[in-house]
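This week, look over our next protein:
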Amino acid sequence: MAGAYLAGTFPSTLLVARLNGAGSLVKASGRKAGETDPHVLMQKALGSGWAAVASTLDVVKAFAFVLAAREWGHLPPNWLALVGVATVVGHTYPFYARAMAGRGMAAAAGVLLVLLPVEMVVAGIIYLLGAVLRSSGLFSTIGMASVPAVAAAQRQPNAFVAMGGAIFLVLMLRRLEGVGKVIRSGVPPGRAFLYRCVFDSSGPPSESRAPETGLQD
C-alpha cells in the first residue's frame, strides 16, 4: 500500500517542466482554482507534445506498479483493489510537489488498464465521444462513473467493483478543490458543486470557458 501511494506521487509534470526550464509553469500551478490542471498548464506553456509525454508517464507509473503487484506480488483481488486506489490517491494527493499533482484521470487509466481493461475501454470510448462533441468534462464523468457498473455487469470480483467506485469518488473529491472560489464568484453552492463534479467546470457547460491556467499569453 505504501509503495502504491509512493508510485502514484511520481511527479511526471514537474519533471517534464523542470527538464524544459518552464519555471513560469511551476509558479502558475496550484490547487486553489480547481481548474488549474498541470496538464493544461503544460499544454499551454510547452505544447501538446510535452503534455502528452507527462500524461503518458502518469499512466505508465500506475500501470507498471499495479501490474507488478499482480504479477510479481501475487496479490489477491482485495489487495489489488486497495493498491489501485492507493496509486490514484498518491497521484492526486501527494505529500510533496502538491501544486503540480494531477487530477487523477491518467493514474486511474493506468490502474484500470491492468485490472479492468474492458471497463477502461468503455470509459475511454465515452470520453472520446465527449471530446468529439466538445463536452469532455461531462463525458469523462459519465465514463468513469460507468466503470463500477460495467465491472458488475462483467461479474468482476466485488473488490474490483468497489475499487471502480472508490476511484470515481477520489476523482470527484479532487475536482471539488477550488469550489469555494467558484462560490465566492457568485455561483450558488449547489450549482458550483454540480459544475465542478459533473461538468468539471467552474461555470455553465453551455458557456465556452477555458480552464484557468494562470499563465500569461
Residues 2-177 form one domain. The chain has twelve helices and no strands.
